[in-house]
Amino acid sequence: MKKNLLYLVCTAAISVLLSNCKKEDNFLNAKPNQALFVPSTLGDLENILNDQNTFNNLDPGLGEIASDDYYVTPDNLNNEQTIEKNGYIWAKSLYDAGSNVNDWSGPYQQVYYANTILDYLSKIAISQTQQAEANKIKGSALFFRAIAFYNLVQTFAVPYDTKSASTDLGIPLRLTSDLNTKSVRATEAQCYGQIISDLQTAVSLLPVTPSVKTLPSQPAANGLLARVYLAMANFPQALQFSGAALNQFNILTDYNTLTPNPYSISTDYLDEDIFHVVQIPYGIVNTNYLGIADSTLFNSYTNNDLRKTTCYVINSGLPYWSGTYDFNDLNYTGIATDELYLIHAECNARAGNTSAALKDLNTMLVTRWKTGTFVPYTATSSTIALNEILTERRKELLFRGLRWTDLRRLNKETQFAITLKRVLNGTIYTLPPNDPRYAMPIPDNEIDVSGIQQNQR
Amino acid sequence: MLSEVVVSTGYQTLPKERATGSFVQVDNDLVDRRTSPDVLSRLDGVVSGLLFNRNTEIGQAGQSDISIRGVSTLFANNQPLIVVDGFPYNGDLNNLNPNDVQSITVLKDAAAASIWGTRSGNGVIVITTKKGKRNQPLSVELNANVTVADKPNLYYNPNFLPSSTFIDIEEQLYKAGAYNGDLSSGYRAVSPVVQILANQKAGLISSTDATSQINAFRNSDVRNDLSKYFYQHAANQQYSLGLKGGNDQSDYYFSLGEDHDLASQVGNSNNRLTLSSYYNFTPVKNLTVNIGYNLVQTNALNNSPVASIITTSKNAIYPYAQLVDAKGNGLPIVHDYSLNYINNTGSGKFLDWNYNPLQELQNADNTTRSLDNRLNFGVNYKFLKHFSVDVKYEYEYGTGNAENDYNLSTYYARNLINRYSEIDGSGNLITPIPVGGILQSSENTLNAQQGRAQLNFNDSWNSKNEINAIAGYEISQTINQSNANTAYGFDKDSEISNANIDYLTNYPLNPSGSGTIPTSLGFTKATNNFVSYFSNAAYTYDNKYTFSLSGRIDKSNLFGVNTNQKAVPLFSTGLAWSLSKESFYHLGWLPELKLRATYGYTGNINTSATAVTTLRQFPANFNPYPNGNPYDFIANPGNPELRWEKDRMINLGVDYGLKDQVLSGSFEYYFKKGTDLFGNSPLAPSTGLTTFFGNTADIKGQGFDLVLNSINIHTTNFSWTTNFLLSHALDVITQYNTEINSSSFIQLSNASTISPLAGKALYGIYSYRWAGLTHDTGDPQGYLNGKVSTDYADIISQSSINDMVYNGPARPTYFGSFRNNFAYKNLTLSVNISYELNYYFRRDSYTSSSLPWLGNIDYFKRWQKPGDEANTNVPSFQLPPYTTDRDAFYQYSSVLVDNGDNIRLKDIRLSYELDKSKIKGLPFSHISIYGYADNIGILWRANKDHLDPDLVVGSSLSSYPIPRTYAIGVKANF
């Protein structure tokens, strides 16, 4: 009797439990946090691309800090971060010991996000009607990965040199979101090769017109290819891709139509903005803050040149740059038509096509002058034209993240090589052409964990 | 004495005599020994192995930070599970009224705690509330007490520099040009002295005027105003009324409690109302049904502005600030911006931009309210002589509501409105934020359900065998939801706000920058689901041998882990042998002797880790640029290897009782081993992440708990008893996959932060090796590659793990208490002395770059001339440009690490008891009148600087030693 009842109770209990198993599974699949979910649809991946805080806000600023378009007073410099103080004088070491450096980790965060998108994209079954959307997602992810690699190479690897590219150290090329993959520095040739192939694939997948300017497009990918080839001093290719980009998008903003404010020249995207991205903010190079514009550079603008009044603010008699295209008042480093014309012009000049080069230059510059006052540039030789173009390039593309790469590449040409100089509290600091300090040190937290090779400085 | 004690695991009660595991029972007298508004602090100093950490961030914030037998986790929850009447308690622990508590059992080892599975890793505290009894007439208990605290001692803080010294430093720094950047910015806050110096330089005032104005500040001490107008004697009033009784069919308990709590900060207070009821009846034979309902309502004001007037940045309060004038009116002080800036911006059309702390206190209206409902239902049915089944259900619903109503007279509202205001071309004032009040509100709700079905079996036969077994199934769901919002243009009287706010436009801000109008709009929801199967069985033979076995499987909705991985059985087993009951046992002086040994596992979880890559969606307007779509952020990288943390514990114990209980107690030694602990391993940033969170760490620990209870004197009229507790607990990292660099260990290590290093304590203090001061300049010296060096940058960046000094653990590793109780007739006196030993803390000193805002009295002991280095270790003062590495080296050098050992006179309680059984004609059956003093003082400390080692001083003024409190109360039973 006792035994039977015990048996009865036990079987009853077990059957109740078993019938509950299905319910139990559902119960245990409840989301612990309502705000979290697993990427499973194309829409989820597309929404990752919309994360502007990751993809459009993390361009490195170290090169800008080390560039020569500005200077700061010792008092102001003293109040800023270590990385700015050291970067400004091209010190051998730049960072607070062990600190994380956004200039390095930021672009790699972009790479991780892009790789996550690419990895999940390959796991999602895509119907025919979704193919266009899937293409756009893949193209965008490849573009974002390429621009991050490009920015890293410009900041943390030595300038590209065809002769040594296959042995010079580039940066780790991370092509998977798997965190267990070890980071190893690829060669410069591998790095530029990866960037170019990613971008070429992206061009074939991206739409010509993006839904918002913070997302990539075909002209943006072509424009970036032109920028990359220019950094490699591969002028025919830079000419080809800047031309391809201009064929798709050649709108220029007439500066006569601008209503600038003290921190930016616009309160919305500029018409000529193709792809919008900004630099990590650093006080000494922030728009109209601590950096005082180089006086020779400022004085080189003529009075009818609208940039002199539009892109600068005079505080206590000193010029401060305020010409960013970014209406959140950060340094715009995106791709815009003016840069494409300047690349196209430079490559034309280098190819000996003086008239085509001048046409490019004048097309762009006329939109910068007071209406009716612009006198087109002329040149009797392509060399003169090239000099004019490079001068105008510097006057147009300040604080756009481009000057540092220009210094790096032009230093390879003796006639353009310059030694940078800063004077601070009576001490003179210099950065001669092709100095190893043109590659920034890799942050300690990377070296400590992955053990990759540090740059010699 | 041993046999009288019954312990509770939350699932069953068992006589302590037959327990194999490590239980500590705190009976009602001990619960009531201290006076406090909360329950947990009643355990302070009376439970072996249980330590209240005061030198941690949580402890400093005034909340209880408890560790039971050390710490068993690195980064998962490290607080014990609190169980109230059988179910884990989800609400705010401060809601429990201690007057409703009958007893508390603390479960310390695996055999005791593992029945709670993956939530038991930090130990379990089981609270049993008061109930009625069958066949007992109505009894009424009335309790009233008042606790008054000393005013906080603002003068203790060694980081405060007197005004005159502060001003001297400001003058030197001004001469050195340290304020040029601030002054030329046109808006950054500078102190009045710096402003006077600047005005003098600009020729606005004469040098004699400047000097006399500055000298007028020299004798001011802001602490006087702060102490007088912003701090008060904290006072707590506690009243409770309890009724209980029962007949042969039912019993009941009902209580009401009311607490009024005035905090040390003027403007902060808390009121609590509690209601508790319980009814138990037998409708038919063998069936009992119980229902219970608890209600807690709290109402708090948080109006003190001291947190915002006391900060370390340059907006900090200067020691010569005058907060109140001779007539008692509040005075404005320099706060976020310079006075020149706030007085000259906005063409006179902006709102008053002054910051006036006393007015802030008067105008503040910040409230928090909460309401917590708990409903219990239980059925017990006995059948077949040996069986019974329990079904229990609890539903808890709580809401909390915080409202900060910043009316237009508050600085918060005026400052925010001004920052967004603009004078347009035609001189008109434009205010994107409407000129009116600002209401920040947030609300959270708790919705918890827990249910349990349990089968109990008890049988004994041949008068020698006894079996107690339980098995059951448990299901629980806890949902926490919250939302927050900000209303602009809010008017409290009409409850009207302005809905026309443009949250998208990026406005230029005064004095610099730009931004959108802030909004706190947001919603969260967190769900925790558990399904568990548990069983526990104990077999006792001949009252001498007990064998116990316990097991539990937990499953939870821990994100994405498949069910198999979720189900980790955690088990424990134990043996107890009452040696003194053996026939061969003849030690007459030691009539009670019992040996115990247990082995088993407890677990822990961290719900923030996920097995798969998870995204979190943000609304479109969280993006910096216009984009119609929401965006996803990768909240967590995937980790398919996710597991529970497992803690293995071996416990060996002996319970003893000498003849007549002259001496009794226990001694237990335990070994712990934690595996699969969650650890934050650094990742190479090139992976895209800088850290990774997973089951990567292992720890081990050991320790002991010694309890000595003695009856020293026992006569008819007088008795003297002593309770001595000594515990040792030390946990050490055995595996941690990655090492951070030495400077990170050194600079991050404290009692709240785990910087794991294999072979070292979980919480350790590390430092740079100290080599004294230089003779010529008084610069601090360290070691670089074994040689004395002043190359601070290299010392910091190049010191290896082996070069740094490990001073020792940051939390006490030996601790306990020594409680003496004296009773003379109706009078009892109890004095508790507590001690914490073998741990270290980093004391503050001064660094040049923080001066003068964050100073330290060490400044007066600094090196000033060659030769001083023989008498002092405090480096010389430096003018800017500072070598911040020099400061960092000194601040984290071994010379600033002190031994934390201390002995405190914890508390004294004196009570007078009258009982009707002894004195006829009393209107009460029993009355107890008591006085209690807490936090009386430090009797001895190892450090020579007269510092309270458990007080993390931090920024100047904001910290003070826990004030001493005095209470008087009466407890009457009718």
Question: What do these coordinates show?
Answer:
The complex is a heterodimer of chains A (457) and B (974). Chain A is 46% helix and 8% strand. With 457 residues, chain A is mainly α. Chain A has a single domain, classed as Serine Threonine Protein Phosphatase 5, Tetratricopeptide repeat (Alpha Horseshoe), CATH 1.25.40.390. In chain A, the strands form 5 sheets. Chain A has a two-stranded antiparallel sheet. In chain A, helix 15 runs antiparallel to helix 17. Helix content of chain B is 12%, strand content 44%. Chain B is built from 16 helices and 44 strands. In chain B, the strands form 10 sheets. Chain B has a 22-stranded antiparallel beta barrel. Chain B has a 5-stranded mixed sheet with strand order 3-8-9-6-7. In chain B, helix 6 (192-201) runs antiparallel to helix 7 (207-218). The longest helix of chain B is centred in the first third of the chain and has 13 residues, at 163-175. At the A-B interface, helix 1, helix 2, strand 1, helix 3 and helix 4 of A face helix 5, strand 20, strand 24, strand 28 and strand 29 of B. Strand 1 (36-37) of chain A pairs antiparallel with strand 28 (614-618) of chain B, so a sheet runs across the interface.
Helix-strand layout with pairing:
The complex is a heterodimer of chains A (457) and B (974).
Chain A: H1 2-19, H2 21-28, E1 36-37, H3 42-49, H4 52-55, H5 62-66, E2 70-71, H6 74-78, H7 82-88, H8 102-121, H9 131-156, E3 169-172, E4 185-187, H10 188-205, H11 218-231, H12 235-248, E5 273-275, E6 292-293, H13 295-299, H14 307-310, E7 312-315, E8 318-321, E9 335-336, H15 337-350, H16 354-365, H17 382-396, H18 403-410, E10 420-424, E11 427-431, H19 444-450
Antiparallel strand pairs in A: 2-6, 3-4, 5-9, 7-8, 10-11
Chain B: E1 6-8, E2 13-15, E3 23-26, H1 28-31, E4 50-52, H2 57-60, E5 66-68, E6 81-84, E7 87-88, E8 101-107, H3 110-113, E9 124-129, E10 136-149, H4 163-175, H5 180-185, H6 192-201, H7 207-218, H8 222-230, E11 235-246, E12 250-262, E13 268-281, E14 287-302, H9 306-309, H10 339-344, H11 357-363, E15 366-383, E16 387-406, H12 411-420, E17 422-423, E18 429-430, E19 437-461, E20 465-491, E21 496-498, E22 507-508, E23 514-515, E24 522-541, E25 545-556, H13 563-566, E26 568-577, E27 592-604, E28 614-618, E29 631-636, E30 645-657, E31 663-682, E32 691-714, E33 718-735, H14 742-748, E34 764-767, E35 782-784, E36 787-789, H15 792-798, E37 805-809, E38 814-824, E39 827-837, E40 840-842, H16 884-891, E41 897-899, E42 902-915, E43 926-941, E44 965-973
Parallel strand pairs in B: 6-9
Antiparallel strand pairs in B: 1-2, 3-8, 4-5, 6-7, 8-9, 10-11, 10-44, 11-12, 12-13, 13-14, 14-15, 15-16, 16-19, 17-18, 19-20, 20-21, 20-24, 22-23, 24-25, 25-26, 26-27, 27-30, 28-29, 30-31, 31-32, 32-33, 33-38, 34-37, 35-36, 38-39, 39-42, 40-41, 42-43, 43-44
